[in-house]
Amino acid sequence: MAAEALEEASPYSLLDICLNYLTTDLEKFCTERHDGTLCLQEPGIFPQEVADRLLQTMAFHGLLNEATVGIFRGNQMRLKRACIRKAKISAVAFRKAFCHHKLVELDATGVNADITITDIISGLGSNKWIQQNLQCLVLNSLTLSLEDPYERCFSQLTGLRALSITNVLFYNEDLADVASLPRLESLDISNTSVTDITALLACKDHLKSLTVHHLKCLKMTTTQILDVIRELKFLNHLDISDDKQFTSDIALRLLEQKDILPNLISLDISGRKHVTDEAVEAFVKQRPAMQFVGLLATDAGYSLFLTGEGNLKVSGEANETQISEALKRYSERAFFVREALFHLFSLTHVMEKTKPEILKLVVIGMRNHPLNLPVQLAASACVFNLTKQDLAAGMPVRLLADVTHLLLKAMEHFPNHQQLQKNCLLSLCSDRILQDVPFNRFEAAKLVMQWLCNHEDQNMQRMAVAIISILAAKLSTEQTAQLGAELFIVRQLLQIVKQKTNQNVVDTTLKFTLSALWNLTDESPTTCRHFIENQGLELFMKVLESFPTESSIQQKVLGLLNNIAEVKELHSELMWKDFIDHISKLLHSVEVEVSYFAAGIIAHLISRGEQAWTLSRNQRTSLLEQLHSAILNWPTPECEMVAYRSFNPFFPLLGCFMTPGVQLWAVWAMQHVCSKNLDGGSVFFSIVLVLRRFRLDEASPYTLVDICLNVLVGDLEKFCTERPDGSLCLKESERLPQEVADRLLQTMAYRELLNDGTVGIFRGNQIRLKQACIRKAKISAQSFQKAFCHHKLVELDAAGMNEAVTVADVVSGLGSSVWIQNNLQCLVLDSLTLSPTNPYERCFSQLSGLRSLSVTNVLFRDDDLAEVASLPKLESLDISSTSVTDISALLACKDRLKSLTMHALKCLKMSTPKFLDVLRELQYLNHLDISDEQHSTSDIPFRLLGQKDILPNLVSLDISGSKYITDEAVEVFVKQRPTVRFVGLLGTEAGYTEFLSGEGTLKVSGGANEMQILEALKRYSERVCFVKEAFFHLFTQTCFMRITKPEILKLVIIGMRNHPLDLAVQLTASACALNLTRQGLAAGMPVRLLSNVIQLLLKAMETFPEQQQLQKNCLLSLSSVRILQDVPFNRQKLLEIVEQKTNQNELDTTFHFTLSALWNLTDEAATTCGHFIDNKGLELFMRVLANNVAEVRELHPKLMQKDFIDHISELLSSAEMEVSFFSAGIIANLLSRGEQVWTLSQTQRRSLIEKLHSALLKWPTPECKMVALPAYRSLKPFYPLLDCFALPGVQIWAAWAILHICCKTPARYCAMLLEEDGLQHLHNIKENAQSDPDVQYLTAEILTYIDTHMLYYGKPKHLKELQAKSNG
User: Fold this and answer.
1) How far apart are CA 1250 and CA 1266, in angstroms?
2) In this structure, are residues 706 and 750 in contact, taking their beta carbons and an 8 Å threshold?
């Protein structure tokens, strides 16, 4: 058994794969002879074992016919053991194809009626070798002879040892002919026309095996039969079973004989009457060599001796071992197969362990009897038992594929048998089968759809639409179109939607039906037209109006309407004002899935231009603005929302340059699908397609390219192959546009993904760079040269690269390219080492085209400055925080230098007059930065402001952080130079006059007002001291902020991101973030911005765990309702806090608040409940202990854990009312879904039902006070429980809970019942005769409360007053 199971779980052997490939398209490998038969093209000779297997494979697949058997003519194939079961061939074809081979065995069972037994034996007899050497011949279910049924022919096969000739008109004379064969050892004449077996005495000295199952024509007395058998002393095996259960006493009498069959090993008496355990035991014990007894369909096999689990094998019905043995031995006997399956069904009803070996036996039985209804009925029921729920997960895919094929065949053969169809659907409705198992999904979908149209069983309807919805998503576009083109299919599915909508019922049937329609209309214009013609649009509008709070329903409806909107010919059908108005409202849904599909509909309709838009033009303009705004506020979904068959629907939208919102939706959709699903090659091809068409121009939104590049860098290895040196190379040969290549490199640098491996993608000519950013790259000098120095670079930013690359390495590498020497214009080398071997090595002079150089935070000395100053085209220089002591060398470039930054020149040793003399010579300077974050005592800035004849062309002056600066001096300096547009005054005592406010054309960085602070944060994001200073002033400014300012929050984010390890920055920034997002301010912030803030706050908490004030600032920001509910972030942190407190055994306020947070986050939030389960929340809460998760129907199987249920059951009896209440709620929710979904012991379920009911009756009246009063967002979770008439305990819990909260907070919950139309529901429960008396009493009490409060507060139109009093 274990070996068979292992075989099924293993991949097909190489030989099997080759033979299946060969037989599937045999004509391709063959030529055709003149007579129409096939001949293999290749002249090679097959090994004999392979030839035998090829013939067997063709027989198994029913491929043997007049033409195909032609490949076995001649000597190309050498057969030894030939299987031609159910072949459709003539006697001539048989003789030509098989009778020249040296056959040892031949199985010709069930070949067509055109060939008789006589034809076969005559053909075999034509070969003398076969006459003497053929040992085994199987001729079951054939005609003996069409002309002369009494024609004798067997005697010529003198070498025959085994003959099977069952289900044949085989008479006594034929038996005599066979019995005369000199070597015959095994004979099977079951179900033949033999009336007398006396002829067997002729072979009594050599016959070892005799099978005479169901000899219906036998006319001998029992005594006569026993006399013949007594003579057959060499028999090892005897089968006298009978599947018709005749009244013959042959078995009973045989068992009584002591002096008979002394060498017997195997006896089969299945189906015989009067057989007892005692008689069988006595018979077997007299014959110690016996190894098998067949007892199926007898009254025996129930004793310990006959269990079949020892050396003595038994086929029977008493246990699994006996049934398995029966299915193995009787696979060809329909009656016994049915009998065994019937008992197997009873045995597997409560099976908990996967049994592939048993399922394989069921498969064989089904395959052998496809047209036998009782067999198929019993088998399909067993299949369900063996594969239900999690059992299918442990079954080999190969086995499940076979079983699925046979289930579909059964459905096809017996379309009107409801129970069989039900069994098959139950088995097919398995995620494992529908998702993982290969089978003909198109045929399956057609069969299930036909069943759905012919039956109205509600439970089966749910399963049928579930199967169709999943299958439709797996079909090809052509198959979907073919299926959807059947008008009755769309009509039937719409009828189900209509029925559920009219009943106002949201259940799985409705959801699966909507999914089925969604999948069937995907890229299928014909199906979409059928949908419209059958009033689908009007119906779906009604669905949206009927279920306004059901986001899962909205998502499916809008997904289908997206498919309709894609069809250009149906555009006019959607130009309906009420429809567009409703979709525009859903565009602003807080559920990103709903907003996404609403946006898709709008995008498709707008994309066709103003001429096609037949409604208001103003509305179109407004929708376009709303579309763009909505998309920019979407967070990144955590899981895949939708799958597309292709990107074809998006390409027309990508070309809509005049409507960027349409473009943006298309690329956002492609990015989402690519990042969640597709393989690397497909994604890269799609990305390149977008990037080549939509470059960085005015007409294309900035985020279009960003989205594609984020997909690419998010999982770069998926798009690359690896070179021998470990570096990466893009798989596809498509070339990226230069602007996009620059942005790709910039994106990788921003994410710190540049290393020796990844920069390999920039080798060669596939990517062309112009403006290269390699900040913080972790690469070697060799990698830098190979990846970047062959490009035609105009700009290079190499700030902060690792120490393995020096300034000399970079400049030397760049200098190896003559083009770069002459054309590189901008170079940034901040925070690099100049040269590890020779710090005085000169290297800049070779870059003759350089116009701008930045070498901040580098050991850059006076000699280096002199070399740089000699560059012929230099216009901009930044030598901040270098080791320069004297700037006199700058006089060499005085005629061209326009920008000079010398922030924090800590080593400067020049006197102020000398320094000013140099500046006086730099007459072409537009920008000068002599700021100092160290607040040095230098008087250079002060003295500079007093100079009238200096820097006449100045536009920008930065003296932030300088001493002795006054407003008057700055004003005078600026007014003398009308061209000045910026003054940096942060960290000085200036900037407080109206002239220097920064709100006019003169921009000022400082700390006096919001404008100055923002300017400072923009300009100094890299300077930690200035960032900290700006944040300090910003905190003061935002303490009483009342207006949302996302632009300020964005600058805070940049400061936090640039200085993650600076405590002062993180402390002040977190305080500013709190001010900017507190109370209602967060509501106006874009979700993406808030998501970035939260990520940085969590990072700060992680970096500085001991800093109490920072932790407090971060937690205060995170406590925003807007953030907790709408913003995507790692909520697993909450579970980590619970686990930490549980491990520490601490019951503090943090622990209680965290539990409360998780409780509230999971309330009526199926997605959050799913996250809770996925993050091992259930296992953790088993140690602390959950009710909200139990309400989510999809998570039901995850809660079916015995330890969990046992623990909750114990807590049901708790003396603490609150504990008992919530335990009862979990049990009630789980019980309410019925027996079918309860996967644990049914005995335990019945016990829980009784225990729940008993516990509820002991509770005090609902008017009692609970310490932890439950609060509910709505009462919808209770309504399904109230309808469980067969479970009064479940009903009572729901009614008790509603009455309790109505007693304690009547204004809120009475109003809620009225708003949700719960009044009618409760009234129906009260009046329903099936309701438990206690339930009727409780519902009557609830209705009384509602009546009282309606009288006091007014009718339902005054509900706002009622709610207001509740909130007060």
Assistant:
1) 24
2) no
Distance CA 867, CA 842 (A): 7
pLDDT beyond 90 at 740: no
C-beta atoms surrounding 177 within 10 Å? 19
3-state secondary structure of 10: coil
Closest alpha carbon to 1196 in 554, 389, 504, 353: 389
Assess whether pLDDT exceeds 60 at residue 1141.
no
Cα–Cα distance for residue pair 1153/111, rounded to 1 Å: 77
Q: What type of residue is 696?
A: L
Per DSSP, 1042 falls in state: -
220 CB contacts (<8 Å, ≥6 apart)? 195, 196, 197, 198, 228
> For 874-887, what is the mean pLDDT?
94
Give 472's pLDDT tier (boundaries 50, 70, 90).
Answer: confident
Residues 6+ apart with CB under 8 A from 746: 773
**Contact (CB, 8 A) for 192 and 170:** yes
Helices (H), 286-333: 320-329
Maximum C-alpha span of the chain: 142
Strand, coil or helix: what is 877? strand
Q: Are strands 186-188 and 720-722 parallel, antiparallel or unpaired?
A: unpaired
pLDDT in tens, 370-410: 999 999 999 999 999 999 878 888 899 989 999 999 999 99
pTM: 0.57
How many residues does the structure list for the chain?
1368
Measured distance CA(860)–CA(837) in Å, rounded: 15
Amino acid identity for residue 458 in this structure:
Q
661 exposed, middle or buried (CB, 10 Å; 0-12, 13-18, 19+)?
A: buried
Q: How many helices (H) and strands (E) does the chain have?
A: 63, 24
Token pair listed for 240: 């006298």
3-state secondary structure string across 613-628: CCCCHHHHHHHHHHHH
Residues of the chain above pLDDT 90, percent: 46
CA-nearest of 282, 168, 281 to 217 is 168
- 798 CB-near residues (< 8 Å, 6+ apart): 774, 775, 777, 805, 810, 827, 828, 829, 832
As a whole number, mean pLDDT of residues 102-128 equals 93
- DSSP letters for 766-806: SS--SEEE-TT-B--HHHHHHHHTTS--SEEE-TT--TTSB
CA–CA separation, 832 and 1020 (whole Å): 20
Closest CA to 745 of 776, 780, 700, 790: 776
Rounded CA gap, 485 and 467, in Å?
19
Q: How many CB atoms lie within 10 A of CB 210?
A: 21
Exposed / middle / buried, residue 435 (Cβ in 10 Å: 0-12, 13-18, 19+): exposed
Task: Please name the helix (run of DSSP H) or strand (run of DSSP E) that holds residue 678, with its range, or none.
Answer: none
**Per-residue pLDDT at 1351:** 57
Beta bridge partners of 852: 826, 876
Separation between Cα atoms, residue 371 and residue 369, nearest integer Å: 6
Q: What are phi and psi of 942, to 5 degrees?
A: -60, -45
